[in-house]
Write a structure and sequence with these properties.
Blueprint lengths: L8 H14 L22 H8 L12 H8 L1 H33 L8 H7 L4 E2 L11 E2 L4 H10 L3 H16 L1
Antiparallel strand pairs: 1-2
Helix pairs in contact: 2-3, 3-4, 4-7, 5-6
Organism: Acanthoscelides obtectus (Bean weevil)
Membrane topology: Multi-pass membrane protein
Family: Belongs to the anoctamin family.
Length: 174
């Protein structure tokens, strides 16, 4: 039998086993200290982050970037700083969307703004059946009155302004 000239499969497996035995698993070392707030002793970064950053009571406060960097590392601190900036930049777009929705909700029953729904709700026209089987009946057009008003709430004249503002926002921030 000829002696192999390259690395055999068994040798590859042994090399991998040696590499895995020498590798420390987990990105961060085991967390030191308790995560719950203590009144005695020195506070650790984990306790500070749990109290001032990981709590739902602190949603409006600035993020403790230096503590995040000390505990998680620079990459995670940069990610959370970027995420905080991104969320702050979404607030004006969300406010404009809420204004558009509120406008649609408040003008839904006014004929001047929502004349299409007004025509549908007051119509005497009859619609053809939706299916071709026996038992499908004709419906009056005014049966779609509620759906027409709901459609207007989300698709009113101010949604054009929202679409334009969103396009400018995307171009500006990306």
């Amino acid at each position: 039998m000829d002696r192999p000239t390259g690395i055999t499969s068994a040798e590859k497996i042994l090399i991998m086993v040696e590499l895995m035995n020498r590798t420390k698993f987990g990105q961060r070392p085991i967390h030191d200290g308790e995560h719950k707030w203590t009144e005695t002793g020195r506070l650790n970064d984990r306790q500070l982050l749990a109290r001032y950053w990981g709590s739902t009571k602190c949603w409006y406060k600035c993020q403790p970037h230096h503590t995040i960097e000390r505990y998680f590392g620079t990459e995670y601190a940069f990610y959370f700083a970027w995420l905080g900036f991104y969320i702050k930049m979404l607030i004006p777009a969300a406010a404009l969307g809420l204004i558009c929705f509120t406008f649609g909700l408040s003008t839904c029953n006014y004929k001047y703004f929502n004349y299409r729904s007004h025509e549908i709700c007051n119509s005497d026209q009859i619609m053809c059946p939706k299916c071709h089987q026996e038992g499908c009946t004709f419906e009056p057009l005014r049966a779609s009155c509620g759906l027409s008003k709901m459609c207007y709430i989300f698709e009113n004249p101010t949604t054009i302004a929202l679409a334009i503002a969103t396009a400018f926002w995307c171009k500006l921030h990306w």
